[in-house]
Amino acid sequence: MSAAPANILVVDDDEFTGELTGLILESAGYDTVISLGGIDALEKLANDPTINAVVSDMNMPGMDGIQLFAELRKQGFSQPFVLLTGEEAAPLRIAHPDMQAVLTKDEQLQEVLPEVVESLIARP
Prior knowledge:
By secondary structure, the protein is of the alpha/beta class. It has a domain at 1-37 and 44-52. 44% of the residues lie in helices and 21% in strands. It contains five helices and five strands, in the order E-H-E-H-E-H-E-H-E-H. It has helices spanning 15-27, 38-47, 65-74, 89-95, 109-122, and strands at residues 7-11, 31-35, 51-57, 81-85, 101-104. A five-stranded parallel sheet has the order 2-1-3-4-5, with helices on both faces. Helix 4 links the parallel strand 4 and strand 5 (101-104). Helix 2 (38-47) runs parallel beside helix 3. The longest helix has 14 residues, at 109-122. It is globular, with a radius of gyration of 13 Å. The two termini are 21 Å apart. Pfam families: Response_reg. InterPro entries: Bact_response_regulator, CheY-like_superfamily, Sig_transdc_resp-reg_receiver. Keywords: Phosphoprotein. Residues 7-120 form the Response regulatory domain.
């Protein structure tokens, strides 16, 4: 019997972009839950203990990805967190070294995102 696929919460204020990110992960064998923004993400996480990781957009109204990360850590959520940004990832990576991964939304994302999530979930 194989283990159930990891359940990834995808957070994006743009429904289309969230669905695309979800499709990238689903094509790599993950189950996904789509959340429209930070507040919705917190509610979904509170109600679904099976979520193994969060992949969040950076720029969202109300609560951006960094604020969501900080709130989740404050609440004791220690699962992997991947931040996606339309900007250059390196400055965010340097500014937030406690974040497991910061990726740029570019043409490489389809290959890079599943690899990064797999490596983070595989860590003990």
